[in-house]
Every structure is written in C-alpha cells, then in structure tokens.
C-alpha cells in the first residue's frame, strides 16, 4: 500500500522549501520503488487568508487520514496583530492537540563540517549529538483555566500548568526508550524545587526507572539545565521535559549547533503517526528569495521515513546525502563561513537538487 504524506507548506519560506522538497520526495519514491502519495493543504497564515481560520477542518481531516505530515513553517508579521486565539501558530497547536502528537523529538546534532558555525568553542561542541524529548500536548500550553480577566488597570492574566500521571508516564517512556536506543542516559528536567506539578513529574519519572535498568536516569532543574547546555552540552544524551521547558531548551540546544537552519523535529502520537517540521520558523525577512536552507526540512523528511513510514534505509540514505553535499562544500547563506567559495554558495532550489542527486547516487551504489 502507498504511504500517504500530507504536505503543509505554510507561510514565509515554507512554500519555497516545500516545492523542491516535494519533488525530492517524488524522486525518492521513484528511485526506491516506494509508493508515496503526496497531498497538499493549507495551515497557518495562508489558511487565515484563504479560509478565515489557521486550521481549516479539511486540513485537520486530511492530516488525520495521512500516514505522516511534513510541515514548512507558519506565521509572519502580516498576522502579528491578531489575538492569540486566531494567530497562525494556532494552526500548529491545533494539529498537535487534534492528532495527540504528545512526543516531540528534537535532535541537536552538530555536523562536523559546520563546527565553526557554533557560538561555542569547537572543542565544547565537536561531535555534539543530543536529543530533546518535549511533551507537546499538555502542560501550561494547554492547561485550563486560562485567560485575561478584569477591568482595565486591574486585569489578571493566568495560565494553568498541569500534568496528569498518565501524561507524564507516556512521555517518560519515550525518553527511556530513546535512551536505550542511544547511549543509555536520560536526564529529566523539571522545577521540582518550586512547582508541585513538576515535583509530581520527578516522582513519576523516578518510579519508572526500575523498568529500564539499562538506562541511567538523572534529574535536573530547568535553570541549571539551561546553564549546563551552554557550559558543557556533551554531558547529555537524552533530555525529557514538559512542553514549555522543552520549547525553551530546544532553542538553546539548536543554537549550539550554529544553525537553526539544519535542525529537524518529529511529533508523534501513540500510533506513530507523525508531524515532521524544521525547528526554524517562517523567516519572513528572507522569504521569496531562494535563500532559505532546505536541510532542516529534508532531515525532517528523513525522520518521517524512519519513525512513521518504516523505511530506515531511506532515512539513512537521505541523511547521508545531506552530509555528502556539506562535504562537497555546498552552503546556503546561513551556514556559509568566510571559507565558503562564491561558487559553493547556493539557494534553496540548488541545495535541494544537490541532495536529490546525492541521494540517487547513494541509493544506486547500495543496491
Ligand atoms: C516551537 C514553536 C511553537 C511552540 C510556536 C510557534 C507555537 O516555538 O515549535 O518550538 O511554542 O511550540
Ligand atoms: Mg519554540
């Protein structure tokens, strides 16, 4: 049976990346003999413009039916004045909650070819490979009650930070399992010294540890975790944390690698259906100029083949192809250094084409 993939280009640089990446996926399907059906729908600002809502019912319906979803980016200054509940970001949050994509996997891997791009000393980040697992459908992002109430001058704003035991258990298990498949170390991040909800988090995670004797579990307060990430990031293997702490720490971890433009993410539900998206945003300042780095979206597609489509060999070849084009010296502007030759500076289209060629070369060499 064909794998169905829903493409959600979104806003800003999303569409100009998704165009060539869609073509790359078609090519991968043809070259590997993997039947893929691609469909496209609207989410975010473009959906607000076309249909008056950031997440049209037809998009959510198509997402429910798809085996996997590949998303570009949402948001932009055009929609910044809208109230929180109507913003483009709501489209993304609606997909996360609508499909119960509770497990967000955010790897931060430093490509050796790009070590000089990090703001940290090369010896601190060389070989960096950590995985942040962020709870994505609960916590303060979704807790009720929430709102702003009262008369002007005396208003109160409030949100609710809440986790139930079963929510903690299911994300913690993802953390333990990921650590088992990697280097066997799991660090759970909380603020158990101040917040009851995260004291419960720590207790529930600790109680699970006996089921995973091969994993070394540690706990860290979130402020310390932020500090340790910029002080000595290689001490970590897998981090597991709640929605808001994970949002913050994953941006910190992303920057350790020097380019947000390189990092993929996966958001999975219990059925391993997934939404895959780059960690970077819609970058409206460079949109429409063929400058955007497509490698984060391409690596998100690789994660999709691995986690939702059961095709690890394709995932590996695609990740290898990304490494090949970096080896060949090709750079988009965001990852270019003083050593990058003029001819090696490429745009979105040329970079995606180069990855496509490298993928085909790898695939035919291996089969
Ligand atoms: C992210 C983003 C989103 C979040 C925004 C766009 C709603 O920052 O995916 O990290 O806060 O989850
Ligand atoms: Mg974020």
Name the CATH homologous superfamily of the largest domain.
Isopropylmalate Dehydrogenase
CATH class of the largest domain: Alpha Beta
Low-confidence stretches: none
Distance between the termini: 22 Å
The helicity comes to 40-55%
Number of helices: 12
* CATH architecture classification of the largest domain: 3-Layer(aba) Sandwich
Q: How many structural domains does the protein architecture include?
A: 2
Per the CATH scheme, the topology name of the largest domain is: Isopropylmalate Dehydrogenase
- Tell me the structural class: alpha/beta
Description:
- This protein has 367 residues and is of the alpha/beta class.
- It has two domains: 1-102 and 269-367, Isopropylmalate Dehydrogenase (3-Layer(aba) Sandwich), CATH 3.40.718; 110-262, Isopropylmalate Dehydrogenase (3-Layer(aba) Sandwich).
- It is 41% helix and 18% strand.
- It has twelve helices and twelve strands.
- The chain has helices at residues 14-32, 45-51, 57-65, 89-98, 122-125, 165-181, 196-208, 222-231, 243-256, 295-307, 312-327, 348-366, and strands at residues 3-10, 36-40, 68-73, 103-109, 129-135, 147-149, 156-158, 185-190, 216-221, 238-241, 264-268, 274-278.
- The strands form two sheets. The protein has a ten-stranded mixed beta sheet with strand order 2-1-3-12-11-4-5-10-8-9, sandwiched between helices. The protein has a two-stranded antiparallel sheet with strand order 6-7.
- Strand 11 and strand 12 (274-278) form a beta hairpin.
- Helix 6 crosses helix 7 (196-208), helix 10 runs antiparallel to helix 11 (312-327) and helix 11 (312-327) packs across helix 12 (348-366).
- The longest helix has 19 residues, at 14-32.
- It is globular and about 55 Å long.
- 46% of the residues are buried.
- The mean pLDDT is 96.
- It binds 3-isopropylmalic acid and magnesium ion (MG).
């Amino acid at each position: 049976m064909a794998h169905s993939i829903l493409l959600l280009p979104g806003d800003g640089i999303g569409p100009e990346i998704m165009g060539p990446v869609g073509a790359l996926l078609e090519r991968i399907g043809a070259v590997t003999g993997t039947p893929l059906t691609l469909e496209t729908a609207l989410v975010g600002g473009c959906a607000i413009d076309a249909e008056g809502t950031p997440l049209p019912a037809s998009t959510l319906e198509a997402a429910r039916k798809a085996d996997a979803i590949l998303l570009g980016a949402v948001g932009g200054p055009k929609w910044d004045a809208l109230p929180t509940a109507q913003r483009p970001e709501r489209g993304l949050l609606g997909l996360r909650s609508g499909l119960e994509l509770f497990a967000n996997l955010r790897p931060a891997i430093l490509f050796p070819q790009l070590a000089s791009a990090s703001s940290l000393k090369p010896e601190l980040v060389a070989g960096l490979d950590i995985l942040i697992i962020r709870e994505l459908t609960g916590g303060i992002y979704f807790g009720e009650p929430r709102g702003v109430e009262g008369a002007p001058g005396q208003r109160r704003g409030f949100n609710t930070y809440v986790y139930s035991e079963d929510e903690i258990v299911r994300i913690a298990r993802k953390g333990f399992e990921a650590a088992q498949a990697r280097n066997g170390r799991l660090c759970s991040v909380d603020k158990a010294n101040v917040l009851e909800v995260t004291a419960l988090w720590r207790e529930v995670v600790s109680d699970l540890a006996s089921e995973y004797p091969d994993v070394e579990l540690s706990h860290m307060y979130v402020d310390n975790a932020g500090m340790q990430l910029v002080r000595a990031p290689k001490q970590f293997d897998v981090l597991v944390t709640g929605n808001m702490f994970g949002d913050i720490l994953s941006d910190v971890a992303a920057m350790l690698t020097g380019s947000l433009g390189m990092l993929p993410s996966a958001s999975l539900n219990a059925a391993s259906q997934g939404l895959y998206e780059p960690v970077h945003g819609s970058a409206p300042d460079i949109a429409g100029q063929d400058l955007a780095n497509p490698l984060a979206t391409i690596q998100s597609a690789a994660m999709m083949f691995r986690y939702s489509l059961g095709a690890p060999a394709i995932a590996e070849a695609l990740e290898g192809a990304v490494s090949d084009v970096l080896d060949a010296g090709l750079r988009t502007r965001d990852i270019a250094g003083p050593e990058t030759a003029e001819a090696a500076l490429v745009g979105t289209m040329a970079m995606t084409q180069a990855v496509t060629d490298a993928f085909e070369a790898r695939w035919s060499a291996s089969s």
